[in-house]
Hints:
By secondary structure, the protein is of the alpha+beta class. The chain is built from six helices and eleven strands. Helix content is 22%, strand content 21%. A hairpin with a 5-residue loop joins strand 2 (90-96) and strand 3 (102-111). Residues 151, 153, 160, 165, 193, 243, 245, 256, 258 line the site of 2-oxoglutaric acid.
Amino acid sequence: xxxxxxxxxxxxxxxxxxxxxxxxxxxxxxxxxxxxxxxxxxxxxxxxxxxxxxxxxxxxxxxxxxxxxxxxxxxxxxxxxxxxxxxxxxxxxxxxxxxxxxxxxxxxxxxxxxxxxxxxxxxxxxxxxxxxxxxxxxxxxxxxxxxxxxxxxxxxxxxxxxxxxxxxxxxxxxxxxxxxxxxxxxxxxxxxxxxxxxxxxxxxxxxxxxxxxxxxxxxxxxxxxxxxxxxxxxxxxxxxxxxxxxxxxxxxxxxxxxxxxxxxxxxxxxxxxxxxxxxxxxxxxxxxxxxxxxxxx
Length: 297
Ligand SMILES: O=C(O)CCC(=O)C(=O)O
């Protein structure tokens, strides 16, 4: 007989309900479990702005010193970790020459996921400044991490075309919000994130069920908002907010964390999403004959 139990074969013991008396509820042990107060909540103005525009900027949410520690951590990972193209978390890009033509050289462009690779990143993902900002959007409920990636965007590499993130997250909940944390300065020249203000409640624009996602006709180019940012600045944007980023045309790296969360009322999807992402990433980035050698470490 197999020692493995499946969800269907597991029976749950039933517990006697906890019914404290009013006197017991006054006791010291019941004084702690209360909904927590948000120490870094968004203001009413910031919340109204988010719901009207699908994004909100939080300049200086993290200090310059914290951003410097992330610069060092990004350098350390780049130097010391197993940056192997067969490791599915590492994404490489072609370097372009001065005329914008692809050269033979490839360079690390993104790590997805990345927060487990350094304690400073693990702390950032669970920092109350991020979690409280999101909890105020989620009516006080805690956010849950859904996805985390570190985009290096080295010199003379590509940006991202116009899209709504939900394109890649179809089938998951619609409370997904990304938090872009600048590690290096972000400028127009190095390909800063550009958002197009839109009420997130207007929803998804693309063709559901496909990865076809041609939405250029649905945004007003004059409405573009460039996230010109200093190290430590943060931008929150909803998964229905159209956005893009140009190529990095400078000689300096533009590193930025993209941390995505969902309302905890919508459940926990980190590992389910990771498997889903690896599957379509493998199909899109590796030749069929190489896919057996792809690993995650
Ligand atoms: O790198 C950026 O600024 C934007 C990245 C982006 O659009 C994405 O990863 O969905």
